[in-house]
Design a protein that fits this description.
Chain A: It comes from Cellulomonas soli. Chain A: InterPro entries: CysN_GTP-bd, CysN_II, CysN_NoDQ_III, G_TR_CS, GTP-eEF1A_C, P-loop_NTPase, SO4_adenylTrfase_lsu, T_Tr_GTP-bd_dom. Chain A: GO terms for molecular function: ATP binding; GTP binding; GTPase activity; sulfate adenylyltransferase (ATP) activity. The complex is a heterodimer of chains A (about 525) and B (about 300). Chain A has about 525 residues and is an alpha+beta fold. Chain A has three domains: about 70-280, Rossmann fold, CATH 3.40.50.300; about 295-375, Elongation Factor Tu (Ef-tu), domain 3 (Beta Barrel), CATH 2.40.30; about 385-525, Elongation Factor Tu (Ef-tu), domain 3. Chain A contains eleven helices and 22 strands. Chain A has a six-stranded mixed β-sheet, with helices on both faces. A six-stranded antiparallel β-barrel of chain A has the order 7-8-13-11-10-14. Chain A starts with about 35 loop residues before the first helix and ends with a helix. In chain B, the strands form two sheets. A six-stranded mixed β-sheet of chain B has the order 3-2-1-4-6-5, sandwiched between helices. In chain B, strands 8-7-9-10 form a four-stranded antiparallel β-sheet, with no helix packed on it. Chain B is globular. The chains are: A alpha+beta (about 525), B alpha/beta (about 300). Chains A and B meet through helix 1, helix 2, helix 4, helix 5 and strand 2 of A and helix 1, helix 2, helix 3, helix 7 and helix 8 of B.
């Protein structure tokens, strides 16, 4: 796999009204094998029919029509400390005119205060994003924040995640909902361990698109060779992780080169600016290619005079599509029925798709309640009591084998027992330590809690766990079902979220084991990273 | 939602996506909590939130009450809107009164006259008295930089406090609402909406708002670069003078600290055009109490404010 550098890009726009009248970006050719690219085609189709660029139309109406077609892209950022991540985000917000005058004047005041009163400093755009007292005091980002900006064709929700090693959990959080990740590197430093860690988390969380922003190009004289070498090294690494959509962009966040505006200082670069790329990435999977999943959230029973017998199952379509007349299975019980109605406040639908919130009515009076999953009756769905998954440990207190937990998966919460931690990812070397002494004959009351090697996950550690559940649940492989294959481990006493998990065999299995338990001992003892 | 389009392209527009997410959050709360309540001020965000609640549970009625934290300094148009809405939808209204709290000696009127910060005590008292375990708020992350760090589900301790360092990570759309007795969860279904999204949604859905959101002639006086309405809470002073201006409100809050903006916008479309062109944030333009310090909102949130 190589980094893609499309040669046809729209001309740079040099001024932005609040409504950002970009021409629609050209879409790459649709590849029928790739569910993402087919959606690109239909997005392009929509853009083509919108009256966005017709000058005969009233500008206000045109803006409104454009907005009616606008979609939403969720993205996350990852960068090491001092790679300029906050500056890049500040630049994106600033150059898309998403920073308003009062916010900017606050930043100017804060910049001047930090510069000892010098009034001629350029505003420190990083101060736009570090919102908490402690963050401004320490000059670092300590928690995920969400930012909003938009253009004529798309609105963006950006998860601004801290880059420190000790905040891996925040990166996991940001990446869980992201369709695109921006991984930042410093052009002077190139691909670091931290960069590889970011790519690994991105791959684990199944983020479909990755942008490598090679920042601080101004400090390497916009050297094409340097950029190409970094892009190639990252592409090779990403490829090994199964990430196959990487776009590398040479930028200077400080000066704004190739962030929103095209840079005159990179004449050798014919790819898109960062924003141009964000504008053309396909937003949603081809829902028709995925199997239908509907975790039931709530049973609607009005019992009013108008609707005395109404019984509907409310939820959000997690994957695929459902049509009136479809035969569905209620999982985990396996009972079957047929969809007789898809209801919304705005009227009935014939077909619903992810991620619409709807209410389904079934032909039979089967037992369906919150926590059940509706899925196609004619397709096999895995359900069971034994969950294998990769988790990122989110809590300060480490994992304890044999601990009684709650597993939250879909809309269901079940009691569970942490039976085993059998592999741990060394986030420094990205090797996997497997534990050879796994006793697969465990029974519920005989968990070995005194292993020779501490089989423990500390804060920010990533490892594979075996969990025994008290009730069967749907076990969708995360790699194929991102919305139903994710789960949480929750402390039943105080309700704390202990870990985020992904069902099924994962990247950890693909990575080569670097050691077994004996030699891993010292490392594992300090696994609290 | 635009059924034809989405069926053809299998793609949701931004507003459809936000609506679907908001409805999802509402249903999660109804499914997980015993005693939710929706904070309803008669402001545009809480009106949109109530609209989402109606969509989430249709054809059943909204399955929780609404609560108004009444500062005693209300715009009469907003109170009229509140009461009409509650009657029309058959909702139960709980009123938490700042005036009562002052009369009981639980809070003390501040010298500046603003009652906005005083809302926290009656709010927490009402949550305790009614044993509410989930409280919907219309807060949006675009409003303020401390709010940008807020989760959709925000666990509050028995003092209602928000601790930004101890927030639960929020992954996928798995919202963890577990809490202990005495704790409650603040829920923000509009987290990912911006001011413009709210207005565009109001336009698309044809939602009616209190008249103060649209330009009208009003007696106001200038203070701190804002137009404030006169009242017994402290204005105008001897050096400030009243004048009649054509104004509208971008937010609805306590009259003592919510500023009006000069505006000719009398329709939703005109308001959208005006907001889209504005160079000031909603709060920057109209909220005096956020200007107190760089971390004013963070500090109030820590105390239990929304």
């Amino acid at each position: 796999m190589t980094t893609t550098l499309p040669s046809t890009t729209p001309p740079p726009t040099t001024s932005h009204a609040p409504s950002h009248p970009h021409p629609p970006a050209p879409s790459p050719e649709a590849n029928p094998q790739d569910p993402w690219s087919t959606v690109t085609a239909s997005v392009a189709e929509d853009l083509a029919v919108s009256p966005a660029v017709d000058s005969a139309v009233d500008p206000a109406e045109a803006e409104q029509a454009r907005h009616a077609q606008r979609d939403l892209l969720r993205l996350a950022t990852a960068g090491s400390v001092d790679d300029g991540k906050s500056t890049l985000i500040g630049r994106l917000l600033y150059d898309t005119k998403s920073v308003l005058a009062d916010q900017l004047s606050a930043v100017e005041r804060a910049t001047a205060a930090r510069g000892g009163g010098a009034g001629d400093l350029a505003p420190d755009l990083a101060l736009l994003t570090d919102g908490l007292r402690a963050e401004r005091e320490q000059g670092i980002t300590i928690d995920v924040a969400y930012r909003y900006f938009s253009t004529a064709t798309r609105a963006y929700v950006l998860a601004d995640t801290p880059g420190h090693v000790q905040y891996t959990r925040n990166m996991v959080t940001g990446a869980s909902t992201a369709e695109l990740a921006i991984v930042l590197v410093d052009a002077r430093k190139g691909v670091l361990e931290q960069t590889r860690r970011h790519a690994t988390v991105t791959a684990l969380l199944g983020v479909p698109h990755v942008v490598l922003a090679v920042n601080k190009m101004d400090l390497v004289d916009f050297d094409q060779t340097r950029f190409a070498a970094i892009a190639q090294e990252f592409a090779d690494h990403a490829s090994g992780l199964g990430i196959d959509d990487v776009q590398a962009v040479p930028v200077s966040a400080l000066d704004g080169d190739n962030v929103v505006e095209r840079s005159a200082r990179t004449p050798w670069y014919d790819g898109p600016t960062l924003l141009e790329h964000l504008e053309q990435v396909p937003v949603q999977r081809d829902v028709h290619a995925e199997a239908f999943r509907f975790p039931v959230q709530y049973v609607i029973r009005p019992r009013t005079s108008e609707h005395p017998d109404y019984r509907g199952y409310a939820g959000r379509v997690a994957a695929g599509t459902v049509r009136v007349g479809d035969e569905l299975a209620v999982l985990p019980s396996g009972r079957r029925s047929t969809v007789v109605g898809i209801d919304t406040f705005d009227g009935p639908l014939e077909l619903a798709h992810a991620p619409q919130s709807v209410t389904l009515r079934l032909a039979d009076d089967v037992d369906v309640s919150r926590g059940d999953v509706l899925a196609p009756a004619d397709q096999a769905v895995t359900t069971g009591l034994d969950l294998t998954g990769t988790v990122c440990w989110l809590a300060e207190r480490p994992s304890v084998l044999g601990a009684r937990l709650l597993v939250r998966i879909g809309t269901r919460t079940v009691r569970a027992l942490l039976r085993e931690v059998d592999a741990i990812l060394d986030v420094d070397t990205l090797g996997v330590h497997t534990l050879a002494s796994v006793d697969t004959a465990h029974v519920l009351d005989a968990v070995d809690t005194s292993p020779t090697v501490p089989r423990t996950l500390g804060l920010n550690a990533i490892g594979r766990v075996q969990v025994r559940l008290a009730e069967p649940v749907v076990l969708d492989d995360y790699a194929r079902h991102r919305r139903t294959g994710g789960f949480l481990l929750v402390d039943p006493v105080d309700g704390a979220t202990l870990a985020a998990g992904m069902v099924g065999p994962t990247l950890l299995d693909a990575l080569v084991p670097t050691s077994t338990d004996d030699e891993a001992g010292d490392w594992l003892a300090g696994a609290g990273i | 939602m635009s059924t034809t389009d989405t069926t053809r392209t299998a793609r949701l527009t931004q507003l459809d996506t936000l609506e679907s997410e908001g409805v999802h959050v509402m249903r999660e709360v109804a499914g997980e909590f015993e005693r939710p309540v929706l904070l309803f001020s008669g402001g545009k965000d809480s009106i949109v939130m109530l609209h989402l609640a109606r969509k989430a549970f249709w054809p059943a009625p909204v399955p929780f009450p609404v609560m108004h934290v009444d500062t005693g300094h209300n715009f009469p148009e907003v109170i009229a809107y509140r009461d009409a809405t509650v009657a029309e939808l058959g909702l139960r209204l709980v009123v938490a009164s700042v005036q009562d709290a002052i009369d009981d000696g639980r809070v003390t009127e501040s010298p500046g006259g603003s009652r906005n910060p005083l809302q926290t005590v009656p709010l927490l008292d009402a949550i305790t008295a009614h044993r509410f375990d989930a409280v919907f708020g219309g807060g949006r992350r675009d409003e303020e930089k401390a709010r940008a760090k807020e989760r959709v589900f925000s666990l509050r301790d028995e003092f209602g406090q928000w601790d930004p360092r101890r927030q639960r990570p929020e992954l996928w759309d798995l919202y963890n609402g577990r809490h202990r007795r005495g704790e409650h969860v603040r829920v923000f279904p509009l987290s990912n909406w911006t001011e413009l999204d709210v207005w565009r949604y109001i336009e698309r859905e044809g939602i009616e708002l209190p008249s103060i959101y649209y330009a009208h002639t009003r007696e106001v006086f200038a203070r701190d670069g804002m137009w404030l309405a006169p009242g017994e809470w402290g204005g105008p002073s001897a050096t400030e003078s009243l004048e009649a201006r054509q104004v509208r409100y971008r937010t609805v809050g306590d009259m003592s600290c919510t500023g009006a903006v000069d505006s000719p916008a009398t329709s939703v479309a005109e308001v959208i055009a005006e907001v889209a062109a504005s160079r000031l944030t909603e709060r920057g333009a109209t909220r005096a109490d956020d200007r107190a310090s760089e971390a004013a909102m963070e500090d109030r949130k820590r105390e239990g404010y929304f």
